[in-house]
């Protein structure tokens, strides 16, 4: 059952985070639904511009619709990840999406507000919610350059004005993570104080708490990287977010945690090992089946770390009120 991202955020707020998983193909879709049913977790499917263009947006959307029929007990939202204005409008008008992300964070503060406001107006008119980004991911890589990196973090003093004027429903806050497998050069440095300050400033302004989204949240398991490299890969100096940080972040108001890279690592490990061990193979279905099983396990385990595992019954009761 497709629900709104706002409903998922409302149920999760302050307790757990919903996994927002980027998918591109049939195998990931099967593993995602199976993993979430096995772990009894709600989830957010997110499609990037690249995912929609990989085959054809209608193809991946049809795959998701089919999965909804195969797994009638699944409760999830469908979200556009890192959209530009044009793609946001395409998703809003399609009638299929629960929410969109407008990523105008590379523009000036004023321009970011103006673009986000336009998307919010179009989205709200059709019942969708909007995630917007303030600050920029990346940059906070090691202790010695924290000061420089801080320039990229979301400014909590600007956040209230941004939320108020843009009308966005959730905020992607830059707290020190970055996309991909190489997040930190030195020690992990997440800035939870940014989230605390944002929620504190909202309360001081007499506003409702706003759900926060954490991008770049893959944990880049070192065992996964080791196996990839042992099977011919060359991924050096990778580093991810500590999974034990997910729940503390959720308690502060993070309701959506974005994961893409970790799923790509599962795919890479499975396929490198399979073809290393079966050099004469050329049927793609045997490794594809292993991948679906491994992706299922990966999703179920991730949901435990996010605290979303086991939430389906309580969410169902909440939705029927
Ligand atoms: O944040 C970006 C996501 O990992 C999506 O990546 O644009 O390569 O599909 P992509
Ligand atoms: P990772 O690269 O850490 O998986 O982040 C994904 C993401 O933020 C998608 O929007
Ligand atoms: Zn992202």
- What are the segments in which pLDDT stays under 50 over at least 5 consecutive residues? 139-150
Average of per-residue pLDDT values: 95
Proportion of residues in β-strands: 5-15%
| Termini Cα gap | 16 Å
- Overall 3D form: globular
- Counting structural domains, the number is 1
CATH level-1 class: Alpha Beta
Find the CATH topology: TIM Barrel
Decide which structural class fits the backbone: alpha/beta
Number of E-type strands: 8
Helical content class: 40-55%
CA-based gyration radius: 19 Å
In N-to-C order, the SSE pattern is HEHEHHEHEHEHHEHEHHEHHH
Quick tags:
binds glyceraldehyde-3-phosphate; 321 residues; binds zinc ion; eight-stranded parallel β-barrel; 13% strand; binds 1,3-dihydroxyacetonephosphate; 50% helix; TIM Barrel; alpha/beta
Report on the architecture of this protein:
The chain is α/β, with parallel strands linked by helices. The chain has a single domain, classed as Aldolase class I (TIM Barrel, Alpha-Beta Barrel). The protein has helices spanning 5-12, 26-38, 49-54, 57-70, 85-94, 109-125, 146-150, 156-166, 192-204, 222-230, 246-251, 261-277, 285-306, 312-319, and strands spanning 18-22, 43-47, 76-83, 99-102, 129-134, 170-173, 212-214, 254-259. An eight-stranded parallel barrel has the order 1-2-3-4-5-6-7-8, surrounded by six helices. Helix 9 links the parallel strand 6 and strand 7 (212-214). Helix 2 (26-38) packs parallel to helix 4, helix 5 (85-94) packs parallel to helix 6 and helix 6 packs across helix 8. It binds glyceraldehyde-3-phosphate, 1,3-dihydroxyacetonephosphate (13P) and zinc ion (ZN). Glyceraldehyde-3-phosphate binds next to helix 3 and strand 3.
């Amino acid at each position: 059952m497709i629900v709104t991202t706002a409903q998922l955020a409302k149920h999760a707020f302050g307790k757990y985070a919903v996994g927002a998983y980027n998918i591109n193909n049939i195998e990931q879709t099967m593993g995602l639904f199976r993993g979430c049913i096995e772990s009894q977790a709600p989830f957010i499917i997110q499609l990037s511009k690249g995912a929609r263009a990989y085959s054809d947006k209608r193809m991946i959307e049809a795959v998701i619709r089919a999965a909804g029929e195969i797994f009638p007990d699944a409760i999830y939202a469908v979200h556009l990840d890192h959209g530009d204005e044009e793609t946001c409008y395409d998703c809003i008008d399609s009638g299929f999406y629960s929410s969109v992300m407008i990523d105008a964070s590379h523009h000036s503060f004023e321009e970011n507000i103006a673009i986000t406001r336009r998307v919010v107006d179009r989205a709200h008119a059709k019942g969708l919610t909007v995630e917007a980004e303030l600050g920029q991911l990346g940059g906070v890589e090691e202790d010695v350059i924290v000061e420089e990196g801080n320039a990229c973090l979301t400014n909590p003093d600007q956040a209230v004005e941004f939320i108020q004027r843009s009308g966005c429903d959730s905020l992607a806050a830059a707290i020190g993570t970055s996309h991909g497998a190489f997040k930190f050069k030195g020690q992990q440095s997440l800035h939870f104080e940014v989230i605390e300050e944002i929620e504190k400033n909202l309360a001081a302004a007499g506003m409702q708490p706003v759900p926060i989204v954490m991008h770049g949240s893959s944990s880049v398991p070192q065992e996964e990287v080791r196996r990839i490299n042992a099977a011919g890969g060359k991924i050096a100096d990778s580093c991810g977010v500590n999974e034990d940080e997910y729940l503390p972040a959720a308690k502060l108001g993070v309701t959506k945690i974005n994961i893409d890279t970790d799923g790509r690592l599962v795919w890479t490990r499975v396929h490198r090992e399979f073809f290393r061990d079966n050099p004469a193979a050329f049927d793609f279905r045997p490794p594809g089946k292993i991948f679906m099983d491994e992706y299922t396990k990966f999703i179920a385990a991730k949901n435990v770390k996010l605290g979303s595992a086991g939430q389906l019954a309580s969410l169902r009761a909440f939705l029927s009120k």
